[in-house]
Amino acid sequence: MDKSKINILVVDDERGLCAGVQEALRREGYVVDAANDARRALELLGERLYNLVLTDVRMPDLSGLQLLKEARQVSRDTLFILMTAYGTVPSAVEAMKEGAYDYLTKPLDMQRLRALVLKALEFQSVVSENNELRLRLQKRSEPSLLVGDSEAIRQVVRMADEVARSEVTVLIEGESGTGKEIVARMIHAKSARAERPFIFVNCAALPEQLLEAELFGHAKGAFTGAVAYKPGRFQLADGGTLFLDEISDLPAKGQGDLLRVLEDGCFRMVGGTELIRVNVRVVAATNKQLQEAVAAGKFREDLFYRLHIVPIVVPPLRDHAEDIPLLAETFLKHFTAKHKRRRMQLSPEAMQLCQRFPWPGNVRQLRNVVERLVLTCHQPVVAVDDLPDFLLAHDRNAASFSIRPGMTLAEVEKLLIRQTLTRETSNRVAAARMLGISRRSLQYKLKQYGLLKEPKPGGKE
């Protein structure tokens, strides 16, 4: 953070206190203005964009709470910290309900003031990054990995909608590349926490010796290199959602620390003595079977049950291959626009070959292949020969499909019907003839197994 680019406004009718706070923050490197009444503060807010306003609660003519309400009409991103005497703490609490970040009681503890200012600015930085990311994604219209008409994908979306309305902990399970992070962001975006931060943590990428400090923050001097106070991911996510990706790779100590926070919402920073309470909704994700990790003694059973309140399983692409045409079309539209190429489409033969491939990298792998085709294929229709070699090689070697012991007859029948429609022919009359059943029976089984796309209103099947 470049403090020389941070603008702070101090507002207090006590001129001595106002000047003292202004000087203390200037010594920290911030750009600090001062006003001795709320009217002057509003004038300054209209002239300049401030990151933070520190204001007294009780002032003549216009109170700090009224200043907050009017300033919000000018700049919704400016944070407010209230300075109040003990007798007016209820007013400060009311101001926090109106959107103030926090409050300080008088007489002011300058060390506490500097720490709170830094914490507020760190929070503002995270919110700004999330808002900028959201805007960038909207501007680029990045295609979602959760495109599809299959019952499997509709079930994931329904579950995400349901849990978004609650505060329950969610565990998202699925192979790499299926879109687990997209589901987590969907839950956050549809929840009451949507305007608060969404903080991403890759548990596999955090060194064990730094894990505690990253999650819970550290005080100045807590260890070698801790030259300043630093909030952790839980503090940055306060009021919002903390997404713990690859939760299965969390080391044993981290699992214990996480369990305690999930149980009471409290923790202490590394090197700190103060008990910190946060309001964070945790969404975790894993590409491994956590129950197997529990059985092997690599994952705490009590933490597993604490996370496994509402599991959402994102299916691999091979289990909803009927969505591949829609996914491919979506990616083609996106990448032809992004790379300024003319519109393209896959030939029916190329599409069927794509539907036959098992896609070990799932939807992310399909997206990457489509982008590659947009860049390398110069014809408006992508033919089979234009597809990558690994797709062609697999198709030459795959004259059959496999079933495994333990599958039900219904699962085998569903797989056989899907493979016939994707590998042999998409024509249902021809497919029914190959399967030795009537078209009406095939239609019934497509509906029974969730393989039948629902017709759009006013459209055809």
CATH class category name of the largest domain: Alpha Beta
Shape-level CATH architecture of the largest domain: 3-Layer(aba) Sandwich
Give the termini separation.
Answer: 56 Å
Mean pLDDT comes to 84
Uncertain runs: 135-141, 454-461
User: Looking at this structure, what is the CATH superfamily of the largest domain?
Assistant: P-loop containing nucleotide triphosphate hydrolases
Strands side by side in the biggest sheet: 2-1-3-4-5
Which term fits the overall shape?
elongated
Proportion of residues in helical segments: 40-55%
Strand content: 5-15%
Largest sheet report: 5 strands, parallel
Query: How many beta-strand runs?
Result: 14
What's the Cα radius of gyration?
Answer: 28 Å
Structural domain tally = 4
CATH topology value of the largest domain: Rossmann fold
Indicate the structural class.
alpha/beta
How many helices? The count is: 19
Topology diagram in text:
Elements: E1 7-11, H1 15-27, E2 31-35, H2 38-47, E3 52-56, H3 64-74, E4 79-84, H4 89-97, E5 102-105, H5 110-140, H6 151-164, E6 170-173, H7 180-189, E7 198-202, H8 208-216, H9 233-236, E8 241-245, H10 252-264, E9 266-268, E10 275-277, E11 281-286, H11 290-295, H12 301-307, E12 310-313, H13 324-338, E13 345-346, H14 348-356, H15 362-376, E14 381-382, H16 389-397, H17 409-424, H18 428-435, H19 439-448
Parallel strand pairs: 1-2, 1-3, 3-4, 4-5, 6-11, 6-12, 7-8, 8-11, 13-14
Antiparallel strand pairs: 9-10
Helix pairs in contact: 2-3, 6-7, 13-15, 14-17, 17-18, 18-19
